[in-house]
Amino acid sequence: MADDETRDPIADPTPAADPSPPPDLEARLRHCEAELEAARAEARQNHERWLRERADLENFRKRAAREREEIAKFGNEQVLKDLLPVVDNLERAIEHARGGGNGQPLVDGVALVLKSLLAVLERHGVTRVESKGTRFDPTQHEAMAQIESAEHEPNSVVEEHQAGYRLNDRLIRPALVTVAKPPSGQGNLAKDKSGD
Q1: How far from 95 is each of 90, 99, 100, 114, CA to CA, in Å?
Q2: Are 165 and 126 in contact (CB under 8 A)?
Q3: Kindly report the CA angle at 159 between 156 and 178, in degrees rounded to 5?
Q4: Which residues of 74-85 are buried (b: 16+ CB within 10 A; e: fewer)?
Q5: Could you tell me the maximum CA-CA distance found in the chain, to the nearest angstrom?
Q6: By three-state DSSP, how is residue 177 classified?
Q7: What is the CATH number of domain 127-196?
Q8: What is the mean pLDDT of each run of 10 residues along the chain (196 residues)?
Q9: Checking DSSP bridges between strand 165-167 and strand 170-173, what pairing results, if any?
Q10: How high is the pLDDT of residue 74?
């Protein structure tokens, strides 16, 4: 026994007689295998969750595309429903005019139809651009002509040829207008007076 105790384990290349790993190594190996299996199970769950989320995303995209198509197709439905009574009133006015008369009932009927049409437009956010008598505003008006006028302020709107409209504060059509400018003789008189 003294021989075994004096034997140097580093100098003696013969392996130990026990081939089984120490008990703590076996426990660590079982623990690592359990962790690996848990990681594999978690990876499978994550992959399945990713596939479900991907399918949900594709379904959402398809549903959103269908909704966009429907909005484009039927987005104006309420406006059109509101305009149908106006069409009905126009048809009644035409039918009434065919019955004869001096034409005044037709004028009155068309005036009522115009009033109801403007009310429908206003309910849907369309308002008329104020023009006549206001200062010319290039963001709201489009000048068709200029006339010399001593009665009107320079750059004021004298006449409206076509009404302009806004949709919820966005200009959808500028008003076509005639704008006043000072008479050409007035400019010369002002120069003559200042020269005296």
Answers
A1: 9, 7, 10, 17
A2: yes
A3: 65
A4: eeeeeeeebbee
A5: 144
A6: strand
A7: 2.30.22.10
A8: 52 54 82 95 96 95 93 82 85 77 76 88 90 91 91 90 91 93 65 45
A9: antiparallel
A10: 81
